[in-house]
Amino acid sequence: MMLRDKKTLFVFFLILLFVSACATTPRTGGGVYHNVKKGETLWRIARTYNCDPDEIARANNLTDTTIEAGRALFIPNATETLDIILDTTEIQDTATATATATATATATKEVPHKVREEDLGSGSTDKPAPATVIPEKKAPATPPQQSYRPRFIWPAEGTVASKFGTYNGMRHNGIKIEGVEGAPVLAAAGGTVTYAAPMKYFGETIIIKHSDTYSTVYSQLKARMVSAGATVGQGDQIGLLGKDETGKSRLYFEIRRENSAKDPLRYLPKTK
């Protein structure tokens, strides 16, 4: 009995270390976009990037934990994209731990407020916790980019066909600019291209990071003219205006501040 109590205390101590390390991760306001692959879950992605699943959900306006393959998921405070390792043994151990936790809660008639087995790591309580749950001590991070508000320019010629906000029961995180198919799409501000690839439901997409605070998203492009990692200046041509899901020639455009979508019309100049 005494040996089992010591093991239980040891596992609980490791879990506290993991949660504490995640909770005290410095918030720099930056992040990266992770392209979701088949089999990846919100919990596994959050665990790989050592951050809170709720924070990822808030940054991407997720209403539940379901994510589809092909989606670009914004990971707050991450500095580089990571590969998600799908370990079938770990999945099986996690399922066993979940069943054990459920049985214990039923026996004691206590309902836990929220259970996140993926956050706590895999394995049952009668064996030592995996070493992977203990965050490695990292070298001091390089100073973040200077935080500033760019003076954005319009990314394309045309009229605003769809505005930011919630209407008709749908949430719109950006605006749609209706123009001429094949017209130039320009960088609204200078920065670094962090994403350049097709995105599910949005087609050809480019994302530019302007500082540790601001980034812009350009979707439904006919063609991309830059690649991830490229440095662009304000007004540089990055692509061609394409068609949206209705068949109309429109550019979908977002401005994000500290990981949250903002109304682009509050940042763009009144006249083009």
Can you offer a commentary on this structure?
- The protein has five helices and 14 strands.
- The protein has two domains: 2-133, no CATH class; 159-266, Glucose Permease (Domain IIA) (Distorted Sandwich).
- The protein has 272 residues and is α+β, with helices and mostly antiparallel strands.
- The model is unreliable at 18-28, 88-101, 103-129 and 136-145 (pLDDT under 50).
- It is 22% helix and 26% strand.
- The N and C termini lie far apart (75 Å).
- The strands form three sheets. Strands 3, 6, 7, 8, 9, 10, 11, 12, 13 and 14 form a ten-stranded antiparallel β-sheet that branches. A two-stranded antiparallel ribbon has the order 1-2.
Shape: globular
Low-pLDDT parts are 18-28, 88-101, 103-129, 136-145
Helical proportion, percent range: 10-25%
- Give the domain tally: 2
SSE string: HEHHEHHEEEEEEEEEEEE
The oligomeric status of these chains comes to single chain
Briefly note the structural class of the backbone. alpha+beta
User: Taking Cα atoms only, what radius of gyration do you get, to the nearest Å?
Assistant: 22 Å
How would you sum up the major sheet? 10 strands, antiparallel
Distance between the termini: 75 Å
Determine the strand fraction and express it as a percent band.
25-35%
Number of strands: 14
